[in-house]
From TrEMBL:
Ketoreductase domain segment(s): 6-189
Keyword Ligase annotated: no
Highest taxon listed in the record's lineage: Bacteria
SMART domains, per database record: PKS_KR (SM00822)
UniProt protein name: NAD(P)-dependent dehydrogenase (Short-subunit alcohol dehydrogenase family)
SUPFAM superfamilies the record matches: NAD(P)-binding Rossmann-fold domains
Amino acid sequence: MRFQDKVVIITGGASGIGLATAKRLASEGARIVLADINQDNLDQAVPEVQQAGAPDVLPSMCNVAKEDEVMATVKATLDKFGRLDAVINNAGLMQFKALEELSGDDWLRVLSVDLLGAFYFTKQAFLHMKPGGAVVNVSSIHAVATEALVAPYAAAKAAVLSLTRSSAIEGAPKGLRINSVLPGAIDTPMLWNNPNVKSGVEKINPSDVGKPENVAAAIAFLASDDAEFVQGSELLVDGGRLDHL
Ligand SMILES: NC(=O)c1ccc[n+]([C@@H]2O[C@H](COP(=O)([O-])OP(=O)(O)OC[C@H]3O[C@@H](n4cnc5c(N)ncnc54)[C@H](O)[C@@H]3O)[C@@H](O)[C@H]2O)c1
């Protein structure tokens, strides 16, 4: 029970990788805060996370792109539980447009969720976490190899790796660890709603598709004390997809 008595915020925790992570950490004793923008999914997720073993679950409607909403979620967490041990920056969105069709607002919409959301929660973690705390950022293989039509997403996910590095440098003296995972193709709504996947522009070999639980296991390791000497790392969880010629 690596997370006994610990309190973990998971952004985008009401679906896919975030929900699988919530259940995994719950099964290891964590009290879970699900921070998500989708109320219906939150309502469905709470009993699932309870069933997985969470001693307590706090659902928190939160748009991670808004710093005041992030602050409100962290305050609600501290008011209810009195501590914060880990943050999983998992909320994310993609947008599909050719470069010449993208506006500055399109870029800002993606960057504000995928990058600034992670920054706002990391800032709160630095302000409120005690030594031993951990942040895990969910990047993507798009940070290192990408395709057409997703420039803002690829840039945001690459910047998340840079944020991880900067956070690790500044977090280490505070006793905080910050690491990232780079999932490949994972069986979640985000993968199958991807127009590039639907149209066949992005070809996915079925053997390259992982389960949300595969990523959750990696996140749980990085968030746990088992990873006490792992700092600023980038863990690929892609079943070897990036290695193919
Ligand atoms: N599924 C994949 O193949 C894959 C691959 C690489 C990386 N990722 C990354 O994994 C993370 C989770 O994706 P997923 O596949 O589980 O997707 P998903 O669509 O199943 O879940 C994403 C969750 O994030 C929430 N969310 C979106 N915008 C938000 C916001 N502004 N504030 C708060 N919550 C918000 C959604 O409501 C949803 O619950 C994302 O960061 C994604 O980029 C996914």
